[in-house]
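User: Could you check the structure of this?
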Amino acid sequence: MIRVLLADDQSLIRAGFRLLIDSADDLEVVGEACDGAEAVRLARRERADVVLMDIRMPGVDGLEATRRIAADDDLAGVKVIILTTFEADEYVYQAIRAGASGFLVKDSEPAELLQAVRVVARGDALLSPGVTRRLITDLAGRAQRPPPRAGPSRLLDRLTAREREVLALVAAGLSNDEIAGRLYLSPLTAKTHVSRAMTKLDVHDRAQLVVIAYESGLVTPGQGTQPAP
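Assistant: Sure, the predicted structure tokens are below.
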């Protein structure tokens, strides 16, 4: 059973999500929070697997709450899905850097929401095409600024040549199956390379891999799927 925590300052939205989630045989709502501070407390107390987190809440907002959850070793297994009103949310980049596993628009279809919880619970990133475009746009804007410090690029020294190749394809938005097809690997081997890259780079999911790939200069905006020299 996947344990879900709802964090939103609007009780009507929480009630709707609770009704939907509790209707699924494999999901259950274990708590509701009206602000970020309460979300962090309940995530720890209720041992939630996934937090549906509104990004704009009074007091401690969803961004700061996500950052606190990601930084707490006791909450290492908790995944956060950021709830947004619009896909083009200015906090997309910040929330992924803070540790969010993905984004979900509040007016998504019920089946999409349930599937999103399942996807994130099993450790995959959830980024809709619109959100991915927004993230890449943000990264492209940052790429016009002075080159990044040596830190991000040195991270790549931890990776094998094949893992760098896989990382570039993750940054291009390819799934494990698509990476396997592109590199003539089995899907399991592709998944293993992605998992090892996440472990070596100390990140929790694919969304953060995308950020590192761009910040390090491994890939550049508009470059496609070929690693930067």
